[in-house]
Fold this protein.
Amino acid sequence: MPARRMLQETEQWVAWVRLGAFGFALFQVLVLSDAYPSRRYEVSAWVTTACLGVGALAFVWASRRDLSRRALARLGFAALVFDAAIVSAYVLIYSFEAGSPVRQALVVPIVEAALRYGVLGGVLLPLAFAAVHVGFEYLHSERFDQRFDFDNVTLPVGVGVITGLIVGWLVERLAGQTKLAI
């Protein structure tokens, strides 16, 4: 299969997954409508969800256009940046919840980075997410009057790197086997 066609199929598939994620995010924001500690958190959640919805539709539309390989690569990078920003926003917004598993959502863009860029993407994005983990831990510790725990930054970053390494290696291995088969 030509590289351009593979890129286009990847963009289309990820775009539809993103659109499904919008539906899931919409559900989550609706379910928590009574749980926000202030109007600011609720408005932030709705604005982020609206951005996700508009972005998801835009990426579905863009992924269906007849683009060059270079344009598809740029679209994929923009999509990854968008997804990382949206998930980061949700993580920081929902830092008000005690015991919230919201940071687990950061694994989705990590897997996406590994899918797009192999081991390199799978390692670089979790390292970039260290800033999000620091922000979450700071907001969380302030809200619950707890000390900032650096383990709550290093452990998820390490798990993200390990996840990115595994998925990136699998992607690179599959690409190598595909070349051998052709």
About this structure: The chain has one domain: 3-181. Helices lie at 3-31, 39-63, 69-93, 107-128, 130-143, 151-181. The longest helix spans residues 151-181.
